Fold each of these.
Amino acid sequence: MTTARRTFLKNTAVAAISGALPAINFAQTPTARVFAPQSGAWRTFDVTTRVDIINPQGATQVWLPIPSVNSDYQRSLDNSFSSNGTGQMRSDGSDGAKMLYVEFASDVGKPYIELTSRVQTQSRAVDWSQKTAVAEDADTLKYFTRPTTLIPTDGIVRKTALAATQGAKTDVEKTQKIYDWIVANTYREPKVRGCGVGDIKTMLETGDLGGKCADLNALFVGLCRSVGVPARDVYGIRLVPSAFGYKELSGNPASLKGAQHCRSEAYLKGYGWVAMDPADVAKVMRLETADWIKTTINPVVTPVNKALFGGWEGNWMAYNTAHDIALPKSKGEVLGFFMYPMGENAAGRFDPYAPDDFKYQITAKEIKA
């Protein structure tokens, strides 16, 4: 079958952040760290996802997430693909999550797809001394306080948030208290598959607050929404090593299987959408050193705990902020979120957390100016 190739161009108009790249402070000793990402310099990456269907059984469908975010920290540029199937660009319709959808007829031998996306990213760090952000649209803010299937905003979620934010008067104070609550009460559980499920009601009802990024940051988002602070998960993937020496906050560009990572944002009056990532604080506490660190008053954890309330490093690419996604033409259930390749055939949906069975590989290449 003739190889099909299409190129999709995306809107690249975003507001650029001015300023020079500050000096980077690397880890000073094996225990003391400095983690202080700052905005100011864009990096360009080509991110390639390759899927090969091993032992195809009849007609097969595949959906690949495409970077859909254009913001002050990411420019999603163009996408191209090759395949011996029939592919087209699709969208979930409500949250703007874009994807490449490919169909393979039952007689296609060795089905494959290779998708390359070009993005530009930069680090983020809010300047708490300045309130200069342009106000967000009221309907957008309302949308990001809504409940979703896995992120309810009533019942035990709201009860927990009200207790956590007791005494807080401003949205910044509420968000800080919720962030601190997540760091103090949840923990990274390495045994959880993939990035977790993000079922925050079950987490709170059972008292099992261990999980991974899609669990812990979803809990942060749900608690924020339940007390009126707009918040959202941002689903993506780490592309390259951290510039600050943290192995757990790094991606290996030669093989990004398992590098998917969910971050979060909260909208704070005067500051706009502000970066948040309490889940990565938990990851550093649990995995960065041989011993599980159970306090933030630690030379390894303290810099991360401080910086990830209001910032994150630009070695990561965002796919989307979508929830409750119905994959087009799929017979499977609605997805809670979409940051893994997905596929299915007549026998059912493939396991996206088993990239050696549902064979895919993701790589990244930085494009130097």
Amino acid sequence: MSDIRKRVGRKGTTYQVRYSTKSSKTGYAYKTFATRKEALAFREDSSARSTAAPLSSEIRTVSQGVQKWLDVCEREGRNGREPVTKYTLANYEYRAAIINDYAWSKELHELTKPDIIEFRSWLLKHHSRDVTNKVLTSFHSMVKELVGRAVLAYDMAEGVTVTASSRYDEAVVIPSERDIQNLLSAADRLANSSNKKTAKTWQRYRPMLYLAVDSGMRPQEYLVLASSSLKETGVEVDRALDGGGKEISVTKTRAGRRFINLSEDTLGMVRHYAENHAAQNDYDLVFPTSTGQWQSVRNWRNRGFASACEEAGLMIKVEEDGKTVERPKYKPYDLRHFYASMLIEQRVNLKRIQTLMGHRNIQTTLNVYGHLIERAEATQESRVSVLSCMQRESCGASVASAA
């Protein structure tokens, strides 16, 4: 057992930790710290040391703990969630290999927070901050899983993190309404081209492009949209291409499953293609290839979307390997950002935007689109100063009364 006592003396306020020890005649020892935070951290580690004992005969090493966690992720799902997809499991196995590469000098139940901090230092020395963050997240997930199963007595990894760089650190690229109009007009022209091959290709790409703009779906979602998901007023999103585009799977999270209303024109265009032009396939695809397979994200981006950008004049010059080349101004994913920006402009509430975008938590929505929400709110606010809101006399009246 241990406790913390606040002491005030000549050196100011300090915090004294009394903890159990076998090396003292009284059974207790004392250690003083300048801050309560340091005292709390020491007490946690002291408690861990005094109670450290293997609670499981099967899981003694870090490697065994990591394998147990991987098995749970694959077969059961953590915390009542569904089992992870094959692609996610492959990512977890990659992180597990990094954890196992570290020279752990103690058994799992003997680890304390300083040990995890040393592990973090090793990660930062051998890997990027982004990888370090992901590995620590997985390690902490493993520890929490084992604590919940009474394999470990406490969470020694709590609070040991790094701040990783985020793909949301830079503002997302959002096409203007004019650019979107030009892009859709380009798709119309290509679908009606005198070149039969071009027209046939865009017979499929045109409804795809309209759907992307009108729904905000991710490319890996609309590329494998099922005909059975076309409803009376919109589409149900319930599946997506798994990582690498190797197979069709469920959406990455439950939040990804959602219903999105579409305009009559877009829905009619998509339904017409599915019923009259889509090749026979075994996957109920709306937009299959001529061989009945799903399209790859890369082919759509480099062949279809890039052609529409070129036709619409939405190209920019960039430097690559010392040469100036032209590239599309936007990427297919930017259409998703445009959709979100239109929701914000129409004052759709934040929770609804989160649902339509398929974000697992609202913090993601705020991270990506918070600046747009602030901008939209600012344009609607009347210019009112703080002082004008206060119930007080004007400066002129005050001066007059004083005279």
Amino acid sequence: MSVAIGDINLGTFPLLLAPMEDVSDPPFRFVCKQEGADMMYTEFISSEGLIRDAAKSRQKLDIFEYERPIGIQIFGSDIAHMQDATEIATEANPSLIDINYGCPVKNVACRGAGASLLQDIPKMIAMTKAVVQSTHLPVTVKTRLGWNDDTKNIEEVAERLQDVGIKALTIHGRTRAQMYKGEADWALIRSVKENPSIQIPIFGNGDIDSATKALAWRKEYGVDGIMIGRASIGNPWIFREIKHYFNTGKILHPPTIAERIAICKTHLSKSLEWKGERTGIFEMRRHYANYFKGIANFKPYRMRLVTLERVEDIYSTLDEIEAQINE
């Protein structure tokens, strides 16, 4: 049975790329799309930044036709500003608008945005309703189980969000207090999905880092799809690995060094194309270690890659890695 967000058909059990600050930019989204991501999101974008026309926030609105379906994710603490930001984001013509009620980091949550709204459900609902009324696009939400262990109120929150018009809900199986520590609790996500009052798709997020776990949790928790975040960093092929396992029951062989190099080069070329040479080179540095994680004798190459400043030197080093490192 196909999963749909409004009139967006995502197929059977879609795999979603999570919005991640400083990670899920267009270059990274490009390789994830190539590797099988069914739905993607921008990095989260500050409503205040959009209203002020801040260059960094505006740049995050860049989306491309090949990325569809794609959502623009916004966050903020002021309802009127979130309405204005929704109108600005809608003009960028994404497939949908997503609201971030899950970010736990201090400079977001301590300013009354992100997961902070889990402490003020009436305000969260009012803000969501305002966003829904400010766009013709489907509106979705990403949030957590609650603020802490004493306020795991996601079951009530899900119903109330649905009542004001959201078209899908992604739940990260931790509280804000947990940050990214401990294990994600998917039992509460299952409770939301099994609630007969819930008619919208429910996506689970948290700790899915392998094809076998993805299938096991798909069966155990009954969600409509999975959102993958940290496990995709330096590992965009996780999407094709999961799909292969779903379809065949067999584990796909890990990518060869040549395949890793090819994907890394694609990521680099898209980074240079979108950000320009100086920024593109600098921002790719955070990805090299992840692309070659677990590869013996890689450390000297990593140290070189994070200091090189010329594009041709980076490409030649990647060629050297392919030639020298034995699989």
Amino acid sequence: MNPYGPSVTRLIDEFEALPGIGRKSAERLANYILTSSRNEALGLAEAIRAVKDAVRACGECHNLTEKPVCDICSDERRDHQVICVVEQPKDMNALEASGAFPGVYHVLQGRIAPLEGIGPEQLTIEALLRRIRQGGVRELVMATNPTLEGDGTALYISNLLANDPVRITRLARGIASGSVLEFANKEMLADALKGRQSF
């Protein structure tokens, strides 16, 4: 027996469809909406509507923005000859928070994952190739996630650019500063050994 009416059940179902939200969390969120003021609840609904209406992909890098071109792409102080390729806007935000990258980005909007039915044509790879082949790009930093799909995507793009005059690099991997070797897994240790540098 369902203790809720159809509208509350629908709200719970919608919350449960969000990533990381289980049934109990969805019920808590629905109960919060029910007990909040009408203005608070409609404010949330209006914020969701406004985001869906206003946010679009940047015409250059495919990051999320409310302008035709995002602030990073339109910043003349950035090095537009170095492009960092990431899977999602959240990955770009993480790199940008470090304050260590002076170049610009390209957001693929995913990664090649054949088992999930995601091929290169669903990503912004063609737009990336156009940016590079228009000239002026000297380095492409592959910052896809260190997963089978992320590495496969980086390899696919690298192969497409094999005959182009652009340097292709990838983010360093391995042991994090301040960590202890005995707690590192074998993949981290292997990456650290392969990517070793002069001291």
